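Minutes, project check-in
Item: structure for the 353-residue chain
Input as provided by the requester:
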Amino acid sequence: MEIKNIAAKKWQKNWAGQWSLLTCGYMGYQFTQQLKDVLGVSLEESLFAVKKGTSSCYILEEHKEYFGKIFAGKAEKDPSLVFSWAKDLKEATDNVLEKIKELKKKPINKENFGYFVKAMYQYGVAHRIVKVTVDYLSQEVIQNNLDILTDARVYAEPVYEETEKYMRFIAEKIAAKEGFIAEHILAFTLDQWDKYLEKGTLPSKNEAAAQYEKMFLYVNNGVLQYIDLPKEQKKIEDALLDFLETKQEIQGQIAYKGKVMGKVRIVLDPARVTDFKDGDVLVTGMTRPEYFAMVQKSVAFITDAGGVLSHAAITARELQKPCIIGTNVATKVLKDGDLVEVDADNGIIKILK
């Protein structure tokens, strides 16, 4: 697809975190094609921005809504499906975590890596149904099933971290063998990775290093389009950042109510932050378990991505702390040290100074 057409789409941030370009390639295929192969419907299109191992995933709201409403409709007709979906997610979680333990003891080859991908895809199907559908259920069904869904979502939380650890484990093994940098192996395209598994051939070190620095990936119904030209990347970045400079107010979804003021602290990688202060307002792409200590110290927290079953929303309900999720732009609009009012009663963040 032409870059101008990709840039013109109304992208919504789905998640953000420390996932590699290689992992994003598999996720993109899963979101846009493998879901369709199994369920008959997918998220159709996805966009990934990856820079030095930190990534953001964007999807289109209309595709997410279409997907979510199909399964929400099924749950409205047969609420027992919610229990089945939660059970499936737990079973898929057990399967993929057990598979990782098993594969760490085996050689790294195409066959064994294929077992890992299969387990991840099975998990992805179960996870996507639970994570997306809940945002489109009626209040009655949510109230009757939120505990079940939350329990399954929390149970499944370790998977994405453990799968990326496994990818890192593989990359370090190959790096030691081939004289490569592990981070650069994780910046391979799917084609480059397949060629290595099949033939042992590697891209040049310069090419892999450039891909690690920055790469965009657009996926449309399973077809991957890597965007590496700086001028094309800038067109997409400009489109994603359009209108942000003058924005003094941000809106999002209420995860837990409350109204507070505090200074912004943007955290994209919690492993690199050791000086988070009590009373700061935590702002991030999305939270994960490793953010918990900072969430506890914060007066409120805000995320770009998120839904009813996001880690941030679950944690906010648990700690009863003001939280606004799904802002899409908070990490881009807000700056460290900004004094903000977090009005989680109305889902609004105001920049005071």
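Outcome recorded: The domain at 249-346 is CATH 3.50.30.10 (Glucose Oxidase; domain 1).
No further action items on this chain.
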